[in-house]
Design goal:
Strand order of the largest sheet: 1-6
Radius of gyration: 24 Å
Number of domains: 3
Number of strands: 8
Distance between the termini: 45 Å
Organism: Thalassovita aquimarina
Number of helices: 4
Strand content: 25-35%
Protein name: Lipoprotein
């Protein structure tokens, strides 16, 4: 693995620990039930708003290229065309996420984002994962526990 790839992976890992935890929340609900409800809503949203792939292309650009002889004295500039690479986009993705959110709202959930806990709180908290969604306060924060698992902590 190249150094730049390792650096990128390390940066992503560090930033992931600094990102807020976003989740559908309903006090007292088991995390496993919330995950099941979310899966049901995702399947329903996919049935109502299916994936529609659209091929798009990156912009075309003219790039100057300087070519010189061995002495470096005689140079010419030519232009080469770059871009035009194809990529696909699911044009229904945003609408599907809205349908998913409506479904979760109908089930009594609201979307919340919890900031990461300060290191003093994270270090003092018992190492566990949240299995039932607790009561939240303005001081509530989250600790990433790896593997998509997390712990919600309310200091005080």
């Amino acid at each position: 693995m190249s150094r730049s790839m390792l650096f990128t992976l390390a940066a992503v890992a560090v930033l992931a620990g600094c990102a807020p935890l976003g989740l559908y929340y309903r006090e007292g609900v088991a995390v496993s039930r919330m995950n099941n409800d979310l899966t049901d809503c995702q399947v329903s949203a996919l049935q109502k708003v299916p994936v529609v792939k659209e091929t798009r292309f990156t912009p075309l650009r003219m790039v100057p290229v300087r070519r010189c002889d061995a002495s470096g004295a005689n140079c010419i500039v030519t232009y080469e065309l770059e871009g035009g690479d194809p990529y696909t986009v699911d044009v229904n993705k945003r609408l599907r996420k809205r349908v998913e959110a409506q479904c979760m709202t109908r089930k009594g959930y609201e979307w919340v984002e919890l900031p990461p806990c300060p290191s003093t709180v994270a270090n003092a908290a018992p190492k566990s994962v949240t299995t039932v969604l607790p009561r939240l306060t303005p001081e509530s924060c989250s600790i990433q526990r790896g593997g998509g698992r997390w712990q919600i902590v309310t200091p005080g």
